[in-house]
Design a protein that fits this description.
mainly alpha, 3 helices
């Protein structure tokens, strides 16, 4: 017998505290919540175009070559 077979023969069945599909539901909820967070940051850069233009004008604007 290999070492792995001996170890596996000694391991008892682990009783999970919840049914297995619940773990999938938990993962789905977590990924959904993270997706909402990422989605909430969409188009953030262009929300304040006037402020960005005023900053660029005050600080020399966009320089060619940089």
């Amino acid at each position: 017998m290999s070492f792995l077979n001996v170890v596996l023969a000694q391991v008892e069945t682990v009783a999970l505290p919840m049914p297995t599909f619940v773990y999938g539901l938990i993962a789905l909820v977590i990924f959904g919540a993270l997706g909402v967070v990422v989605w909430s940051y969409r188009d953030v850069a262009s929300r304040h175009q006037a402020k960005a233009k005023a900053y660029a004008d005050a600080h020399g604007g966009a320089r060619a070559g940089h």
